[in-house]
């Protein structure tokens, strides 16, 4: 992946150099300036990390956290220069995710189980969870944007929405579910005139039917018991911290406490310790949880990641860096909403909304998957291209 990105970047820079000679200047998009604070922070954390990293591998891996987003943004915004390019990408994304979900359900129904090569014990694996949520929200956006007159089309789209809603719930990805719910509220606010009670009740009917079929006829007895436990017990966040009844959320809260203590001890609360820096179990010892940390990490009490992006970035770049990262993200998020409102055609409105959804679903939970970083960079590129063509008409 790294070699491929480097090759594409060099080729793109050469092309930009030749084109800049013809134009007499480098091509700068208005939203390029949004990345200036992010790049300065990136360099600062790289220098700071040279003095604090635990292992060279940790340092080089974390250099890519924000580096991938910037690289993907630059590549996409300079290669895909027309709004139609991004519409095709959205359509291709939906087709692939739908096909992948069908394949997984068929595989599971034939006894394939819920295990990937890494034994990930949830419906779908890793970054597939937010992909399902993205598909769900993009189809919801299509329903409101295009205002289909055909009852058959509306019926089909609502059925697809119900299908992906069931998959998102079955994934047990709580961060994804919360972010999806927030994004859904934003979509309802943008298209509040199109949201009628009939639509809401129809969608709820599809969802109820889908959940009933999936839960009773597809899931095994063991997985039904697991989901029942999660819904009844594991969502209690307070008990998760006090009693460790939920290792997933409990571990993240305890990590935040220990990271704060580590930064306080080093006097680095404001600017962090840099890429590759470790944190220690100083304030409280973590209970055993092999899904969050490796055995050696838990034995030594020394860790390099927190499994929750804001807490992870707090360790690396401190409070000020956290403000820079999510301040930049918030600027892009706000720009996405403005661009949705400014588009002249329905297809452009839906395309911008699709990339707004892709970014919103993973903006707090993208660090461990390169393809999620790619989608964030791609979303920013879509915003930049549409923003540079504000006067475009249908």
Shape: globular
- Please give the count of helices: 15
Note poorly predicted spans.
114-121, 240-246
Task: Give me the count of strands.
Answer: 2
**Rg:** 22 Å
Structural class: mainly alpha
Write the layout of secondary structure elements.
Layout: H1 2-23, H2 36-49, H3 56-79, H4 83-112, H5 128-146, H6 151-170, H7 174-190, H8 197-218, H9 221-234, H10 237-243, H11 247-266, E1 279-280, H12 295-300, E2 302-303, H13 309-342, H14 346-362, H15 370-387
Antiparallel strand pairs: 1-2
Helix pairs in contact: 1-3, 2-3, 2-13, 3-15, 4-5, 4-14, 5-6, 5-7, 5-14, 6-8, 7-14, 10-11, 11-13, 13-14, 13-15, 14-15
Report on this model:
With 394 residues, this protein is mainly α. It has 2 domains: 38-73 and 244-394, no CATH class; 117-235, no CATH class. Helices cover 72% and strands 1% of the residues. It has 15 helices and 2 strands. It has helices at residues 2-23, 36-49, 56-79, 83-112, 128-146, 151-170, 174-190, 197-218, 221-234, 237-243, 247-266, 295-300, 309-342, 346-362, 370-387; strands spanning 279-280, 302-303. Strands 1-2 form a two-stranded antiparallel ribbon. Helix 13 (309-342) packs parallel to helix 15 (370-387). It is globular and about 65 Å long.
Concise summary:
With 394 residues, the protein is mainly alpha-helical. The chain is built from 15 helices and two strands.
